[in-house]
Design a protein that fits this description.
Order of helices and strands of chain B: EEEEEEEEEEE
Distance between the termini of chain B: 30 Å
Shape of chain B: globular
Radius of gyration of chain A: 13 Å
Largest sheet of chain B: 7 strands, mixed
Oligomer: heterodimer
Largest interface: A-B, 23 and 23 residues
Strand content of chain B: over 45%
Helix content of chain A: under 10%
Radius of gyration of chain B: 13 Å
Number of strands of chain A: 11
Order of helices and strands of chain A: EEEEEEEEEEE
Structural class of chain A: mainly beta
């Protein structure tokens, strides 16, 4: 079964850091670009960051650029999101998602999603 | 920027429903559509504007190119009541429409 499982969410104070992880199984993880998407409570979807298969191509939403870092370890079938200088408005359910296409950061859709991990930024 | 309409829609089982997504500039056919049920992750329905994802019922269809796109459900089933999002994948940063909540009339 193709699956993504996120972990690492929790309650954190504004200005602090938190790291998320997402493990993939049931597919050749290292062949695909991966993404993080978030959803604030009661709100819509917001793309956060994407990384191609070999970590050469990376991009971020303007709202997180300079504060968040996406990385991957293909040997561990995992993608990560390091979140620094967290703000209250970063509070959201964070999903990792698999790119439908192989290799490069030229997606045509996200075909597999995890169940998400909740990040709450509050004092 | 993507603008979805309507933001909410009431319909009955068996109805034909159309949701529209308009881009602020041309994005070729680089649009995907997702369904999200309450408390669940999004599910891919359509990619490249009109290609049905494997395993998705044929009552779902997509069309459009350039700036105007539509998702159509030909005959609503009880399990289709959910929120639907369009997504542009033409350029980074990627973006989603604000969503259309499909409710039971």
């Amino acid at each position: 079964e193709v699956q993504l499982v996120e972990s690492g969410g929790g309650l954190v104070q504004p200005g602090r850091s938190l790291g998320l992880a997402c493990g993939g199984s049931g597919f050749t993880f290292g062949d695909y670009a991966m993404h993080w998407v978030r959803q604030a409570p009661g709100k819509g979807l917001e793309w956060v960051a994407g990384i191609n298969w070999n970590s050469v191509s990376i991009d971020y939403a303007d709202s997180v650029r300079g504060r968040f870092t996406i990385a991957r370890d293909n040997a561990e079938n995992s993608v990560f999101l390091q979140m620094n200088s967290l703000k209250v408005e970063d509070t959201a359910l964070y999903y990792c998602a698999k790119d439908h296409l192989k290799w490069e950061l030229t997606p045509d859709s996200f075909d597999i999603w995890g169940q998400g991990t909740m990040v709450t930024v509050s004092s | 920027q993507l603008t979805q309409s309507p933001s909410s829609l009431s319909a009955s089982v068996g109805d034909r429903v159309t949701i529209t997504c308009r881009a602020s500039q041309g994005i070729n056919s680089n649009v995907a559509w997702y369904q999200q049920k309450s408390g669940k992750a999004p599910r891919l329905l359509i990619y490249t504007a009109s290609t049905l994802q494997t395993g998705i019922p044929s009552r779902f269809s997509g069309s459009g190119s350039g700036t105007d796109f539509t998702l159509t459900i030909s005959s609503l089933q009880p399990e289709d009541f959910a929120t639907y999002y369009c997504q542009q994948l033409y350029s980074f940063p990627l973006s989603f429409g604000q969503g259309t909540r499909l409710e039971f009339k």
